[in-house]
C-alpha cells in the first residue's frame, strides 16, 4: 500500500485543486486524490469564510451527471481506509507498537464503515444531479452543497463539530440561503 505524505499547510484562502487535476476532475469517472486541507480556521474564522464564499458563489441550473463524483470518491476512500485498517491490524497482530492515531483508527473503524454504509444507503445515485450547481469558483458545475461541505472540511482539517457546522452554515445562509433540496439529505454534510 502506498501512503501519501500530506503537504505543508497551504497559503490562506479558499481550497484550490492542483492545476494538474483540474482537467481530470471534470470527467465523470475521475476521483480527485488531492488532500482536503487548507488553512486551519477557528469557529469565528469559519463563519467569516462561509459568508465570503456565499458572496462569491453564483448558482445556476442543476449539476447533471458530473455530480456523481461523490459516490466514486466514497468508493475510493473506502478502499484506502480498508487497506489502512488491514495494515494497522496486521501490525497489532505482530505485536508492533502503534501510534495513538492508529489506535483511534482501529477502535473507530467499525463506526467509519457504518457511516459509509449509511451514506451509500441514503444517497440515491441521482441525488447530486438535481442539486443547484455552481457557475463559478474553484468547482464550476459542482453541486453547491458539496463545495460548501469541502470548504468547511478543508478549513477544519476534517475536525468538524456541531458548533463549527452551525456557525458555518448560518453565516453562509445569512448571505445566500440554501435551497430545500440541499437540506433534504444530511449525506453531503456527513
From the structure above, extract its key features.
single chain, 190 residues, mainly alpha, two-stranded antiparallel sheet, 7 helices, globular, disordered N terminus
Gist of the model:
With 190 residues, this protein is mainly alpha-helical.
What does this structure look like?
The chain starts with 18 loop residues before the first helix and ends in a 7-residue tail after the last helix. It is mainly alpha-helical. The chain contains 7 helices and 2 strands. Helix 2 runs parallel beside helix 6 (162-175) and helix 3 packs antiparallel against helix 4 (100-122). Helices cover 52% and strands 4% of the residues. The chain has a two-stranded antiparallel sheet with strand order 1-2. The longest helix is centred in the middle third of the chain and has 25 residues, at 69-93. The chain is globular and about 55 Å long.
General form: globular
Describe the sheet with the most strands. 2 strands, antiparallel
Parts with pLDDT < 50 across at least 5 consecutive residues: 1-31
Query: What's the alpha carbon Rg, rounded to whole Å?
Result: 17 Å
H/E series: HHEHHEHHH
Mean pLDDT across all amino acids: 78
Supply the number of helical segments.
7
